[in-house]
Design brief:
The chain has 102 residues and is mainly α. Helix content is 55%, strand content 0%. The chain is flat and about 55 Å long.
């Protein structure tokens, strides 16, 4: 038996891609409308990112270009804050959003 070790980046990506493929197949096989299928798939992907099944929470972190802040300010526009983490409740946030914006 092999000594336990951390997964490699390639292994984690492979796990994620396999999970998404399984979600596509699952939602495609339910016979729902195209809109229901797409909304279900999006919800399931957000659930995966929030941590479900074999995968832990996957952080989404904003990484704007180093010149974006200055450029947006010069245009009088809002800008994205670097290193802002936006994950952990995405599937819940999606449900709330969809109720407000059907």
């Amino acid at each position: 038996m092999e000594k336990p070790r951390a997964y490699t980046e390639e292994e984690v990506i492979e796990m994620m891609m396999g999970h998404v493929r399984n979600l596509v197949n699952y939602w495609d096989g339910l016979g729902k409308s195209k809109k229901e299928t797409l909304e279900g798939l999006v919800f399931s992907i957000f659930t995966m990112l929030d941590g479900s099944g074999d995968l832990p929470t996957i952080d989404l972190v904003l990484k704007p270009h180093s010149t974006d802040r200055k450029y947006h300010i010069s245009k009088g526009a809002n800008y994205f804050k670097s290193n802002m983490r936006i994950s952990t409740t995405l599937h819940e946030d999606y449900c709330i959003y969809m109720k407000k914006h059907p």
